[in-house]
Write a structure and sequence with these properties.
This protein is an alpha+beta fold. Helices cover 16% and strands 48% of the residues. It contains eight helices and 27 strands. The strands form five sheets. The protein has a 16-stranded antiparallel β-sheet with strand order 10-11-12-13-14-15-16-17-18-19-20-23-24-25-26-27, with no helix packed on it. It starts with 8 loop residues before the first helix and ends with a strand.
Amino acid sequence: MTARRAPQPGILYICGLLALLAAGHGAGAAIRVEISGVEDDERNNVQLFLSIEQYKDQKDISEGRVRALHARAPNEIRAALRPFGWYRPQIESQLTSENGDWQAHYRIDPGPRLAVTTLDLKLTGEAEADPAFDRLLTRFPLKPGEPLIHARYEAGKRTLLNLGVERGYFDAQLIRSELRIDLNAYRADVILHYDSGPRFHFGAVEIEQDIDLDPRLVLRMVPFKSGEPFDTGQVLKLQSALSDSGYFQQVDVQPRRDLASGREVPVQLKLTGRAPNRYTLGVGFGTDTGVRGKVGWERRLINRAGHRFGTELSGSEIRTGVNARYTIPVGEPHIDQLAFNVGYVDDHPETSDSQTYTVGASYSHGRGLWRETLALNYQREEFRVADEVGRSNLLVPGVNWLRIDSDDRLYARRGWRLQLDLRGTAESIGSDTSFLQGRAAGKYIYPLGESARLIARLDLGATATSYFEQLPASYRFFAGGDQSVRGYDYNTIGAINEAGEVIGGKYLAVGSLEVERSIVGKWSAALFYDVGNAFNDLSTEFYKHGVGVGIRWRSPIGPVRIDYASAISEDGNPWRIHVVIGPDL
């Protein structure tokens, strides 16, 4: 029998070392962490604080390391809950191992929540008499008796400091900022003492620009006067006005606190002008118009007074037009404008033909939250509607009000648009006929959950005249088309003559309801119902109805809408495809 050879000491040493290394590592062991008793923000914060949660995916973590991380967990959980007012949590922790994997379970009973016992907010300085600070203190996010939420305390303190800067209290400071917590009495006292110091005022406005624009025109856009109390809101309003004026490519508005004289802060404007000429070229498509295009030119600055001139040529399968416009800024130059225009339109939809020459003037300005435009136009029109042929010369004064309120002008989740028009003329002022006409057109968009929205339209119009047959085509109401009753061709719905031909109407009533729901990415689907007509007798009930489905794609220039609509009021329910590109409102 052969005797076995005893292992060498060196081999025994190596084997023992390998065994120790194997015992000291989890060989890729997994750590599973379970947290119960808290939810939402508190749970998320606990996960952020827990070291064992951060290390759970680390490979080859040792048993000693796991146990050390587990031992730290209760204190980490307590620290994570304090910002939410939980200062007496009871924590049960358990660590088990099975088949080389670890499971850590933490059961949390948050206990009673620490409430704010006293709230000591004190103002000194000129801010004591500032109503904006009164409102802020009234709405301070912490109240006695409410849970002590640290984030609300910090938000309230930050809002107080920011308001001081916004209102021109540049020397303000927090002289006391304390959050006192007594765990034995289980109470919290919040102390904020704010010394605003004096309020600064607006100084002179200094203008630096690289275009030849009269500085007095720029100063008319300034919403404040030298010596008025400083307000950052007024600075932002000035920035917006200068940007909206159309004269400047870049606008930099800088209050110069470092150059203050006493308590007056000068405001420096650094303005970079736009290129003097603007050229436009556009191509589009709509079922109503077919392929359409336009080309235009604008001279942005004609003289130091800020006058502008622009002209545009447009064309489509049913309309060709050219117009020129001379604009003079008045009042507040970015919103108040006096304009003179001249134009020609050749319009030939299926139901009429007209050639219209127009010359006129308009004045646009802000009236509260509305945009108001007063206009006076002389219009000569030759027209044919069915078997009616005529020529009219009209001097038409009118007024238009427009208001848009939306979270996004291109694609609104919530918003509305309302436009009101009133116009008319009389033979006594040189027109061929007399009439008075009013129209109200509105659109409303309302969110339905996170992925859908309701879109409603209403268009109403009425004309008072004793000579409807003398009314030119451009002043008659028609319905049907992409933006009216879908399923019908453009302007093919209206009152009819004895031969059954559409002649338009004195009245208009069109409504629409649509539900749109997102499908995937920028694509969505829609269901809609349209109803309406143009008629001459209010007692006549012959509304046309259209229903259909559509597909939408949110493009960079607004939604692209493709609708498949059926004219369900007609024999055989004929259908049409409508395509429209453009903003919601």
